[in-house]
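Deliverable D4.2, example record:
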Amino acid sequence: MKNAELNQRRQQATPRGVGVMCGFYAERAENATLWDVEGNQVIDFAAGIAVLNTGHRHPKVLAAIEQQLQAFTHTAYQIVPYESYVSLAERINQLAPIDGPCKTAFFTTGAEAVENAVKIARAHTGRPGIITFGGGFHGRTYMTMALTGKVAPYKLGFGPFPGSVFHGQYPNALHGVSTQDAMNSLERIFKADIDPKQVAAIVLEPVQGEGGFNVAPAEFIQALRTLCDEHGILLVADEVQTGFARTGKLFAMEHYDSKPDLITMAKSLAGGMPLSAVAGRAEVMDAPAPGGLGGTYAGNPLAVAAAHAVMDVIDEEQLCQRAQRLGHHLVEVLQQARASCPAIAEIRAQGSMVAVEFNDPASGQPSAEFTRQVQQKALQEGLLLLSCGVHGNVIRFLYPLTIPEEQFTEALGILSRALAE
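Output generated by the structure prediction step:
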């Protein structure tokens, strides 16, 4: 079977709206390595968009899924419950950076988690308004498209969107947006668009994902917490991409003194199996009436088994500490590359959530073209990289945190050459 032949079949069989980045087709994978149908080998620095912090096919995750397969694959938790769902909720309740007693509900996708966080916030507060931020990404359903602060490609041709959603500015030093500017933008929303007493929640990514791995300054999180407390607004941390050791902590919000009221999570929670969750203050989580939360596949037993194994692996293999170490090494390599790569405008990192932003050295404008060239050169040498950012001029690094040292060193060599060329 050839990649080109599969590409032709894909174009005939599937709609163009499902954009596909790579022209090659996966046949198998192991930890941080992918093999395509023609036998080519690629180092995977995409990890299914931050889903594989524990790598492809981690033996412990496989074993947990296999064991659950032998027991049962589905009952619908809301019909016939099972212990593994309850014990996973108990584990997350203990670990989530939430003040006071915590409760957790499971769903299937990241967008579903965010959408349910909105439902919970509205049920608890009795208010309609939701505030999010420019550059934020929260999903592709109608509610989460409304929350997302990036038009192309996510919102093109799909409006109108649900109302009572407003976008503030997210701090971004490189692009001249200070924490004060961001807070001023919220005050403008309160003056022009919605009374703060009608706002249910402020939803933010502590590190923006699609937006370019912009890290929220500590003073911004503190100011949001103060603002929320003043007006009775819930603070919701969307940790779908930042969760499960990526930033060097289990959750990115652990880097801050201020705690959110609700946290959404998905992606690396179950090591490649579809599972998401909302965790939050018990009295907030209990606001919806019985039957108000759930879904046929929500908290699927195979995915829950995988998540238990992922939590074990993060703990046993000290992946939070490893994320810090690998991220630090990558940042050093990027800083060294600056000498021969004047297009590097900024390097941003929290643990192994690392990104490099490129501008055209002549004009100082964001350069999506240079970003594409780096991606292509790296891929020619067998390194798969993802871009992001509002201007498409950022490369983000999402290698499995379990990547072997030798392979990581090899990948950084490829990256250095791609940047130098």
